[in-house]
Amino acid sequence: MKLKKGQVSNLVFLVVIVVILFTPVGTAVKVWVNRFIAFSPGIIDADDRKLLTDYNWRLEDAVTGDIENLEQMKGEVVLVNLWATWCPPCIAEMPSMQALYDSYGDKVNFLFVTSDKKASVENFMSEHKYTFPVYYERSSIPAELFSRSIPATYLIDKEGRIVIDKTGAADWNSQQVRDQLDFLLKQ
């Protein structure tokens, strides 16, 4: 049976879709697309910012095993990123997160929180040479930081107001984010 021209093109299209959705090649394509469309996250207007009311969130440091609590960071600037090693938008934004961490890691509390297996996280961090701190949840996340989608990133000011609430990939090393961090650190 000979295929018609339209059938061949449909078959090629189907194969491309299967490759993108179900193979590592597809993950690389999805990461590239997410990087291409990632823009600086928006800053929430001062009047519309939610207040973090519950700081009781226990986190385990992936390297040391130490338990930390968000409560210890009250009154400081905190950036929380919920992510996974298998998530293309998460992977896409990680280089900009690393660059931001390299510049502000000694001034801002960075919490990269995942539920992935420890071996997967260690391999991912090593493969990409990332140095930002990774944590595992050891208690329920505060309601204001809960998200059904990842990546989800929150920038919290010293008063506990959520200044940025971004779901999906973003360019975290943008001048807009850096200016906002500088402003928050001066307050």
TrEMBL record:
A Pfam family (short name) is: AhpC-TSA
- UniProt xrefs under SUPFAM superfamilies: Thioredoxin-like
Q: Which domain of life is it from?
A: Bacteria
* Ranges for domain Thioredoxin: 40-186
Q: What is this protein called?
A: TlpA family protein disulfide reductase
